[in-house]
Amino acid sequence: MVGRNQEIPVVLYQIRVVLQESEPLIWRRILVRSDLTFRSLHGVLQEVMGWTNSHLHQFMFNKKSYGRPDPDGELDTLDDSKVRLEEIIRGKGHCFTYEYDFGDSWDHYLTVEKVLPLEENKPSVLCLAGARACPPEDVGGMGGYENFLEAIKNPDHPEHQELLHWVGEVFDPEAFDLNYINKRLQRFSRRPRPKALA
What we know:
There is one protein chain. This protein is α+β, with helices and mostly antiparallel strands. The chain folds into 2 domains: about 5-130 and about 175-190, Structural Genomics Hypothetical 15.5 Kd Protein In mrcA-pckA Intergenic Region, Chain A (Roll), CATH 3.10.290.30; about 135-175, no CATH class. Helix content is about 25%, strand content about 25%. The chain has an 8-stranded mixed sheet with strand order 5-4-3-6-7-1-2-8. Strand 6 (about 95-100) and strand 7 (about 105-115) form a beta hairpin. Helix 3 (about 140-155) packs across helix 4. It is globular, with a radius of gyration of 18 Å.
């Protein structure tokens, strides 16, 4: 791994995030700094997708898993808080996966669409676009989500009232609020570091 003291220039990655098996697609387009750790990217993905960070996660690259290390040592997981994006991502076109909740197994496919210069006075973490709401936590994966949507749309469904109550009485699968997401992302944004004087 490359040390930061070797001065890799910090850039922005424009990444498209797609929730696998969603139909129609649930997706986001984000900008993130190249010097973020993968643990920080996990936090960004939780915010932009709408998850609640209640479950385990992992990033997968070349059959290697990056996430929270297993305290029992049974899983061979590398610590994602010690690896920066620039150490793994090789530029435009690089693809990788992010899994959230090993029970429901929400798989996200991430594609680096662009590599952009870091601009002063511009947010360094931003959601640019997206579509559709994130499924509720613990709904049972994509199959469970499809059953959930069917039930809440049909007042005659035997689980209609129960599931509506469980989700908080209202759920709009088409909802997507870009401004709200970007307000939540402000905690990840930071200004570019000043260049060291010669």
